[in-house]
Amino acid sequence: MDQLSDITQHLLRFSPDALIVVDANGRIRFANETVTQLFGYALEQLLDKPLETLIPERLRGKHVSHLTAYLSKPGNREMGARIADLYARRSDGSEFAAGIRLAPFKIGEKLFVAAAIRDNTERQQINEALIAAREEADRANRAKSRFLATASHDLRQPIQTIRLLNAAMLKISRPDLRELLQQQERAIEGMTRMLNALLDISRLESGAIEPQVSDVPLTETLHQLTTEFESVAQARGIALRVEPASLIVSTDRTLFYQLLQNLVGNALKYTDQGEVKVSCVTGPAALTITVSDTGIGIPADKLDRIFDEYYQVDTQGAKRMGVGLGLAIVKEVARLLGFTVSISSHVGEGTRAVVSIPNQYLTAIAVGADSTATAEPAGGATRRSRVLLVEDNDGVRLATELFLRFEGFHVESAPSAAEAEVLFEKFQRGDVIVADYHLDGRNTGLELLTRLRQRLGYDVPGVVLSGDLPSVLRSLRTPVPNCRFLSKPVDTSALLDAIDELSVDGGTDRRSAAGGAG
């Protein structure tokens, strides 16, 4: 028993923490040897002294109020968890960041408080360094996001020029050069996908995207997927099967399509034979949209990393494609929309991506919906329409004009909104305006289209091109009738289809227009 008592006394005296006991009046009744080492006071200099002796003068007023509040409701407590910038004062007047743990106890009816004190200077310095590093990383990330957002338009312009020139050369080149041009076209397509992915993930990470919820007919989204990817599937010798569905989803139209677009694009990219299938199934709690393929598959030990940014699975020597952002974008978009995405796969058998949409987002079933109701692009129509092209980038304008002329269109072009308005006098019903969205600091292609419609008195057909299409679409308060919005670098087939489709009836009289969505 005596040995235990000795151990207890030595533990109190030489504890790694400075131990102090104060009474209900805040006076020091006990201090161990470690207090002397930490504060520089002899023990007799502290006994019966107020605790304020160990507190910097500038903080003593706050200390009194904190001590009063603590004694009214004592308990085990970490002072530093509630009080910022907690400091103690040494005998020489110097200060140090302190970590203090309080524990109340009673002897008879008298209340005492034990305080364990540590010098937290090193810990504080580490925390400050971590905070500074995090702030610096946040600044760098914001700077990256601002750069990509600002440079988006300029980065897309040269790709747009090359893409259009390549398409024009395919129309006139010798047969022995066509294979080279087709290879070049595939390289341009790959570069476009990578640029789009980098810009998309930047916008998502920056928090700059807020979902704009509207009623989205699933049949339209599925038809759009078919239109975009059918030619890609045919070129790879793969069957693309998109099963019809007539539900309406309450969601952000652009983000929803972007999610499915990435999943279908990814499936086609890693499938060499067989099929890619999109199917929809309603359940008691959710609608599930499944994108399945018969591709190379993903090893089981890699599935938990496939949603990481820039991560690409090494699929048994398969060539590297893209930059590994497609599924990272899918994950972030699904989170924004309130959906979930899961992936299952078997090597050599294929992959299934399942998007689960809770029933709360299903607003209705389209009455009499027909998955084939959307008009097919009039790709085979005779091209007699004229095109008014408005583009402020010289290279893109000349390349677009050259491409459209080789496709059989009569083209009038203008480098600015002001010069385009001079050409309004020549505009006839059946003509189509193709305009860049960002023309200059004062005008947009959509504003130019609106002025032309007001001048002529009918919904002039228009195609608006933008390097930041998601932001443009989210800025629209209402659908724009008789207008198509396409992303830069523009898919040449999509541009031709849009012009052909819009020029069929030449526009709608504003007095009788029902107002279709662009």
UniProtKB/TrEMBL annotation:
<dbReference type="InterPro" id="IPR001789">
    <property type="entry name" value="Sig_transdc_resp-reg_receiver"/>
</dbReference>
<dbReference type="InterPro" id="IPR011006">
    <property type="entry name" value="CheY-like_superfamily"/>
</dbReference>
<dbReference type="InterPro" id="IPR003661">
    <property type="entry name" value="HisK_dim/P_dom"/>
</dbReference>
<protein>
    <recommendedName>
        <fullName>histidine kinase</fullName>
        <ecNumber>2.7.13.3</ecNumber>
    </recommendedName>
</protein>
<feature type="modified residue" description="4-aspartylphosphate">
    <location>
        <position position="436"/>
    </location>
</feature>
<keyword id="KW-0808">Transferase</keyword>
<dbReference type="Pfam" id="PF08448">
    <property type="entry name" value="PAS_4"/>
</dbReference>
<dbReference type="GO" id="GO:0005524">
    <property type="term" value="F:ATP binding"/>
</dbReference>
<dbReference type="InterPro" id="IPR036097">
    <property type="entry name" value="HisK_dim/P_sf"/>
</dbReference>
<dbReference type="InterPro" id="IPR036890">
    <property type="entry name" value="HATPase_C_sf"/>
</dbReference>
<dbReference type="InterPro" id="IPR004358">
    <property type="entry name" value="Sig_transdc_His_kin-like_C"/>
</dbReference>
<dbReference type="InterPro" id="IPR035965">
    <property type="entry name" value="PAS-like_dom_sf"/>
</dbReference>
<dbReference type="Pfam" id="PF00512">
    <property type="entry name" value="HisKA"/>
</dbReference>
<dbReference type="Pfam" id="PF00072">
    <property type="entry name" value="Response_reg"/>
</dbReference>
<dbReference type="InterPro" id="IPR005467">
    <property type="entry name" value="His_kinase_dom"/>
</dbReference>
<keyword id="KW-0067">ATP-binding</keyword>
<feature type="domain" description="Response regulatory">
    <location>
        <begin position="386"/>
        <end position="503"/>
    </location>
</feature>
<feature type="domain" description="Histidine kinase">
    <location>
        <begin position="150"/>
        <end position="361"/>
    </location>
</feature>
<dbReference type="InterPro" id="IPR003594">
    <property type="entry name" value="HATPase_dom"/>
</dbReference>
<keyword id="KW-0547">Nucleotide-binding</keyword>
<dbReference type="Pfam" id="PF02518">
    <property type="entry name" value="HATPase_c"/>
</dbReference>
<keyword id="KW-0597">Phosphoprotein</keyword>
<feature type="domain" description="PAS">
    <location>
        <begin position="4"/>
        <end position="57"/>
    </location>
</feature>
<dbReference type="InterPro" id="IPR013656">
    <property type="entry name" value="PAS_4"/>
</dbReference>
<dbReference type="InterPro" id="IPR000014">
    <property type="entry name" value="PAS"/>
</dbReference>
<keyword id="KW-0418">Kinase</keyword>
